[in-house]
Amino acid sequence: MTHLLTLLLSRLRAWVLAEPEDVNAGAAIGASGARTRWPASRTWERPDARPSGSAMTTADIQLSALRVTLLACVVLAGVVGLHTAVMALIRGKPWAVVIVLVVLTLLGAAIRQAKRPGRAGALLLLAAVYAAALAITISTGTQPELSRLGYVLSYTSPLVAGLLVNWRLGLGLMAFNSLFYVLAISGFNAPQLPQQEVRLPQSLFYVHTALFMFFNLCMPLAVFRMVDGMGKIQERLRTSRQLSEQVFQAGSAPTLVCGPDDEVLRANKPFLLLCGVDDENALRGLSLQDLLNAPAGEARAWRPEAGLRWWLDAGHGRCEVELRSAHSIGRRLQAYGFDDVTELRRVQAHLAESVLREARATWHDALTGLPNRSRCIRQLDALCAQGPAGPAVALLTLRINNLRQLNARYGVSACDDLLKSFVRDLLASLPAGAEVARVRGSVIALQMPVCEDASEMLTQMRRLCAALPVQAMAAMQPVVLDLVFGLVAVRELLSRQAGPIDGAELLRCCELALDMGQDARWRQEFHGFGVFDATTALAVQRGMAIEAELPQALSGGQLHLLYQPKLRPDGSLLGFEALLRWTSPALGPVPPAEFIPVAEACGLIGGITDWVAEAACAQLALWQARGGNAARAHVAVNLSAHDLERRDLFEMLTGALARHGVKATQLELEVTESALTRQPAQALQQLQRLHEAGFTIAIDDFGTGYSSLAKLVDLPIDVLKIDRSFLHQLPGDLRRERVVRSVVSLAHSLHLRVVAEGVESGSQMSFLQALGVHGLQGYLFGRPELPGHWQALMQQGRMPSEAELAPLDPA
């Protein structure tokens, strides 16, 4: 009960004072464990209440005073009005009950409207006051003095209106109440309610009690609340002014407050420090036109435009300020915020000088003083803009190939001296009109006019390269420089280039030639150079095009498998080899010999192998579903050296088998001898794991990889495939016959099956059958075809006899 009473009093206090509701009291009841939180009263709720701790406004104070008045009036109506109503009913005067109900209804409506700030509650209170005054006037006619007390009660309405609504309404009610004053002093007797010959014996008590409580309780409480609230507002305003002054003085930006004629009224401490004065009275009254001057060379008067800079004459010298902001304060005052940009202008001037000093460093190499890569590209851009009609120019790049080793041996400082010495000698040996740039650490680019004839140009370049110094000194020790050269004939490249080419692309082509210059094959072809010409450009472009299209081949369904049969010596079907083919919409048919090396170089070979294994297993599943001879067929797929280095190879293959319901014995894995030499230990581990899982392992192109017999004995293999190169001119070539016999004999001794590739004639088939090979594969039995082509072979389970076979053109 105590908790409930505490909660009710807390909410009543919050309602009367127009403050946020204290929910802690309700929470305390729930925390006691005895009761849950008391629900909020609908009458006392304030949906628009602010968070606790927010400052009250004048409207809140008026609302609180209204609630105080209403609360006191309710007490008055409850004590006096209800007692009057009861006594009136006893004496048969129902009009008194009606009067009390009307007043209570008006008070109740006023209380309901007092949930939030507004005028409705105060206007209803005024209506209740006038209703009570009227009731007193027209219900006590037998006592004129008592009846005129109703006029006295109405005299309070201007005060109530002025406090709770506004002064205009108060003035209006003052004028309106003058009518009651005139009626009172003139002795006018107001009309009375009927049946007033019998009056309530306590009428005098009721009227005086009502007036006493209203004048002595209701109105003083309302005034006290207004005075208390306004005092708090005054204190808050005083605190706000102090805080504003502190913020104004402590602000980091120099600030002035000026009057309507731009005369200085206030200046904060940062502005005083900027001016070199201690008291703002020294600035007060000064015009901004006199205080601030336009920079030299600018004739303009003061105007409040953000971003303009002005000179300010200070005690410590002249400083430059920039107007940051201009804000209006009320209707007549302006606040101007400034920034001291004196140091900023000094830094900007220093930066401008630094930019001029470092302009050369931007386009030149710091070590050698040569133009850098960016400057070289700009020069080449200008050359490319002339197109094929420009001069005959050769772009030569050279690299000191062993500069890194010299750095490691003699130190960076010694090699920096070596490089600077080499550049000096290089510049001394160059012909007139040559341009030199350092485009990378050990790479120097030379742009020189040359002869238009290609052979003459190469001769000229060879003479130049022969004249370059190859002997140098590093840390007082003689060293030999390993120079590599790359060459591009600029006009020839521009003339055959289909689209536009810029300096960066031209330099990249020359660097590609430099990289090719490290390849012995290209150096031998061009006599010591890597030359980016039509042949090499086509090779590079073809490789780049294949690399660009390969991802689309994997994701766009451009790959497909062809199947070539493998037969036993008796002509029965042994299996098929799956051969990958790619038909690109952009490149056309691309042979595996072209795209497989590119896929290995760019890291896409793993995805291709995954696709081949998945497609081969899917085809095996189709044949298996048909039954018969097709269900017993197996398919061989090729693995690259990169596949044997994959950690997920085993999981990939077994996953493909599981997804299609194919046995491991139906999938043969072919690897070349060269694939086993990259990572022998890892390759052996992979093959052993696959062999133990039931996969058939075959060595493809046996005899071309120079593998040792010792390694062959240790490999977990089942099949040797004799390379097609050994079957040329067989039978008849005795040396090749001996080699093939040796391979077959070796395979038999190791209990390995032998499959011969490239069988193209009946004589070759007869020769191999006589040697006891286990399988035959070649154009004699059919070219690689789509699976549907071999439908008849799958049904019969064998090929036609030798007499029925006709040799196929290997082309």
Number of helices: 31
Our Rg estimate from Cα atoms comes to: 54 Å
Helix content: 40-55%
What separation lies between the terminal Cα atoms?
109 Å
What amount of the residues lies in strands? 15-25%
> How many strands, which pairing sense, and closed or not: the largest β-sheet?
9 strands, mixed
Number of strands: 22
Form type: elongated
Report on this structure.
The structure is a single chain. With 811 residues, the chain is of the alpha/beta class. The protein contains 31 helices and 22 strands. The strands form four sheets. Strands 14, 15, 16, 17, 18, 19, 20, 21 and 22 form a nine-stranded mixed sheet that branches. Strands 2-1-6-5-4-3 form a six-stranded antiparallel sheet. A five-stranded mixed sheet has the order 8-9-7-12-13, with helices on both faces. A hairpin with a 2-residue loop joins strand 4 and strand 5. Helix 3 packs antiparallel against helix 10 (203-250) and helix 4 (94-113) runs antiparallel to helix 5 (120-139). The longest helix has 48 residues, at 203-250. 30% of the residues are buried. Mean pLDDT is 79; it is low at 20-53 and 802-811.
TL;DR?
The protein is of the alpha/beta class. The chain contains 31 helices and 22 strands.
Write the layout of secondary structure elements.
Layout: H1 2-16, H2 24-31, H3 58-90, H4 94-113, H5 120-139, H6 144-147, H7 149-154, H8 157-164, H9 167-185, H10 203-250, E1 255-258, E2 264-267, H11 269-275, H12 288-291, E3 292-293, E4 309-314, E5 317-329, E6 333-340, H13 342-363, H14 373-385, E7 393-400, H15 403-410, H16 412-429, E8 435-440, E9 443-449, H17 454-467, E10 471-474, E11 477-480, E12 483-489, H18 490-496, H19 503-517, H20 520-525, E13 529-531, H21 534-555, E14 559-567, E15 573-584, E16 588-590, H22 592-602, H23 605-626, E17 635-638, H24 641-644, H25 649-660, E18 667-672, H26 675-678, H27 680-692, E19 696-702, H28 709-714, E20 719-722, H29 734-749, E21 753-756, H30 762-771, E22 775-776, H31 791-796
Helix pairs in contact: 1-2, 3-4, 3-10, 4-5, 5-8, 8-9, 14-19, 15-16, 21-22, 23-25
